[in-house]
């Protein structure tokens, strides 16, 4: 009797032990359950599965979360059917499915067999007992005794994408591995956003909301998604893998050994966030999110538009296209996009324009041939009348494969390190008028950096080879130049700069390196050595600069002493400016205080006189086009000297003086006039705009940049009658009332200079009398960059400002921008 009792107790005990170990290990067996606060822990305890509460503990869900961060739920089973109390029991059903049962009502709230795609589970015959296991990847897997996977949570993602997990589609089974956002921070039911693979054309991932795309990653280009250049910078932490076979199209990433835990989340606002666990702070750090900016908004600039985040006006048209409705574009409604200026000829009458550095347009209806070469791709595109563009499918090894687009090019934007898109145009669009510069170019992105020169300019040039009567060889260049300025032998320059040694280096920019040197006669010089890459670009810039500067003589322009050409090396020799550039003063914490208001005003007037000389008095009528603090040098007596004429534009025929459209958009973020950033309209007013920004920077000692809109800030202060508050705090204290008054005048003049509408900006000849208080400046209007564009909060203000600008353009001077836009 006692024996049988003992046996019974032992049997009960062992059953208890079995049950409890089944409930808190990484495995759940047929006999086990999980309920209440019990969890299934992955073998190394990275993830846990269990019940969690939302909405003040009024709704309960079965989920998987990071053990170190229990609030970070990565997967939810019963998203649509919450339990009302922690009464859920997780168990394996007799049929081998994992089920969540409500113990209170005995209802099955969720079952893995319901969420498995029809074909996959049914195809597998279950062998023996089924176990559920939570693996260290965060994957909950059901296997049978033979080890066959019956079901896994990684094939049923919710809002989180974990390492080793795939997003995409199985072509074979029809399974769709896509993410869907939560409805709210406290509500895991499926929300408005989905992250889906578009398998048509060249595959790409996109975010989908309310029946339309809101963001695309761009197609996979062999290395990364075309629109996410940042992926390259993460390659030390993650291994990205893209699969496109007849069976499946999918994307996944793995954490490299030793890299921290990470996840990618589609959040409730429809933003993809790559989060990385920071062990030190015990929190998630947001590494990347997309869409990043307004240019990532799907089809922001409409068909054949191209988006660039360089200024307030982000949309432009691809070369050869013009806004479909100019009036709407002035209203900043760019969704209508652009239309072709010259119809395609279909055949030999067409050619290709290279749009460099972009995220490729929507590939949904593109055709892809990974085997074709780029040349073959061009040939095929020309042979098909409906083909509008082509590009390489894989960028590795100089580019291979072929993507062809047939209709509108939608959602194209400039990105760092972007790809080349070959856009089909009628040949007449590709031919460049004789009096303009003989190459066609397109801006890539202007990158702001904190290098010595603070800014580096990245742009790419496509040169027309066919009609080139231009200087093609260095011999030609040397010949042309010898008449323009004295040349120095290379030996002299080399000795002067101590063989271009690193110690002599005083600056570095987009065009090359600047060295300090000493000529045999003791004179100090600055030698600008142009970079050897981009020969075409370098040569054009070089010629432009030499020809222009050699003819210019003004106290406020830096003087070119000579030049030196040797093989592929091209150098310019300038007088040396011992105080370097203005930005090294006004944006420097220590040195700014040494620049008194009186000196600043002298610098301002000096720059104004230099620009006026360029515009009017030099008889050459030059537009500088890249006026900025880094391009203003200061000599030993703090006299301002404008430098860097590499991209200046010469207007010798007065007929062409007013305005013209350039295909070369070059400039620096923050200083670029909106009409120029938008459609490349070049005029003297472009320099006036940059001067206005520079003026505000000199007064305030602050930089106009993405993170701080100096113009809006200055407007706010001016409007409130507190202009003198803009004055650099480093010198404000020591200023007299009269000086503060002068600063306030400068602010008002600057605000006039940065008016959105070019015709409202004062010509440089008027600026100087205004600054020296001989002429009263007009009242500026609110700059458009201050009004939130397209925002529902102030639609009236934005519309009014845009309307005013438009009326001014059409009414004021008949043949301004509008005619120019349609003229070519
Ligand atoms: C399971 O639970 C028991 C008692 O609650 C505990 O002693 C044991 O360490 C747990 N096992 C695991 C693997 O967590
Ligand atoms: C789990 O629940 C039991 C009883 O419901 C309770 O005694 C125990 O403290 C709970 N454990 C935790 C970690 O909340
Ligand atoms: C949650 O519960 C707390 C205390 O019970 C209460 O103060 C709070 O208003 C509740 N919040 C919601 C959203 O119901
Ligand atoms: C719950 O349902 C199972 C089968 O679905 C049944 O065997 C069991 O008796 C039910 N229990 C209660 C309390 O209704
Ligand atoms: C599973 O699917 C069947 C049929 O579609 C449905 O009747 C049942 O309610 C579902 N069960 C759960 C737990 O969703
Ligand atoms: C989604 O992510 C973006 C970008 O990181 C963030 O600004 C936003 O607040 C997030 N939304 C929610 C609901 O967390
Ligand atoms: C923008 O322009 C499109 C047509 O190009 C038009 O359908 C749409 O209503 C306009 N939107 C606004 C806000 O004016």
Automatic annotation (TrEMBL):
Coiled-coil region(s): none
Subcellular location, record wording: Membrane
Binding site for ATP: 529
EC code: 2.7.11.1
TM helices/strands, residue ranges: 439-462
Signal peptide: 1-22
GO cellular component, one term: membrane
Membrane topology qualifier: Single-pass type I membrane protein
Pfam families xref list: B_lectin, PAN_2, PK_Tyr_Ser-Thr, S_locus_glycop
GO molecular function: ATP binding; protein serine kinase activity; protein serine/threonine kinase activity
Cross-referenced PROSITE patterns: BULB_LECTIN, PAN, PROTEIN_KINASE_ATP, PROTEIN_KINASE_DOM, PROTEIN_KINASE_ST
Bulb-type lectin domain: residues covered: 25-155
Domain spans labelled Apple: 346-426
Keyword match Zinc-finger: no
Gene Ontology annotations of biological process type: recognition of pollen; response to other organism
Protein kinase domain: residues covered: 500-771
UniProt keyword annotation of Signal present: yes
Keywords carried by this UniProt record: ATP-binding, Disulfide bond, EGF-like domain, Glycoprotein, Kinase, Membrane, Nucleotide-binding, Receptor, Serine/threonine-protein kinase, Signal, Transferase, Transmembrane, Transmembrane helix
Catalytic activities: L-seryl-[protein] + ATP = O-phospho-L-seryl-[protein] + ADP + H(+); L-threonyl-[protein] + ATP = O-phospho-L-threonyl-[protein] + ADP + H(+)
Gene3D superfamilies according to UniProt: Bulb-type lectin domain, Phosphorylase Kinase, domain 1, Transferase(Phosphotransferase) domain 1
InterPro entries: Bulb-type_lectin_dom, Bulb-type_lectin_dom_sf, Kinase-like_dom_sf, Pan_app, Prot_kinase_dom, Protein_kinase_ATP_BS, S_locus_glycoprot_dom, Ser-Thr/Tyr_kinase_cat_dom
Family affiliation: Belongs to the protein kinase superfamily. Ser/Thr protein kinase family.
Protein name, as recorded: Receptor-like serine/threonine-protein kinase
Highest classification ranks of the organism: Eukaryota, Viridiplantae, Streptophyta, Embryophyta, Tracheophyta
